[in-house]
Amino acid sequence: MTLNQPSDSRDVQRAVASAIHAHWMMFLIEGIILVVLGLAAIVLPVIATLAFTLVIGWLFLISGGVGLVTTFWMRSAPGFWWALVSAVVALAAGIVLLRWPVSGSISLTLVLIAFFVIEGIATIFYAIEHRAQLSGRWAWMLASGIVDLALAGIIFAGLPESSLWALGLLVGINLVFGGTAMIGMALAARPHA
Fold first, then answer.
1. pTM for the full model?
2. Count of alpha carbons within 13 Å of 186, Cβ hemisphere only?
3. Mind giving me the DSSP string for 56-87?
């Protein structure tokens, strides 16, 4: 039996809906926590930016450490040197982000700017290319691409000061929207009296 059969797809959808329905309160609590953390990040974007940078630093450090251990453990496997270089780069990135989080936040902000530029250009071209098929919605996509480019320009124009607040603010906004969506999903899935 393959997973592409319609009955399997419906079974998976029913199982997911059942799990959400059974645990709607956990989703509600998680959504509320995400909204609270997001609002805190929006109110205190500098602290949120530094916290985000430190979390990314720890992720790099841990992944680099695990990568080193597994690379030496499997040193007879093909690609040993590439795996070693990858692990060392991850370790170095983690150390830099943890040792100098403000400098690290500048680097991460530059990556964010690059993301907004690429995403904005791709969205604009997608909207223009599909304006006939997307009828009225293509203008919204075009606007989204323009907003991405505007955000990249605002953050870039404010460097290096914008690197202190941009990541925290955007992570906060993301948390608020994600938490709100989770709250809405949980409330829709709660049992009806």
1. 0.70
2. 16
3. HHHHHHHHHHHHHHHHHHTTTSTTHHHHHHHH
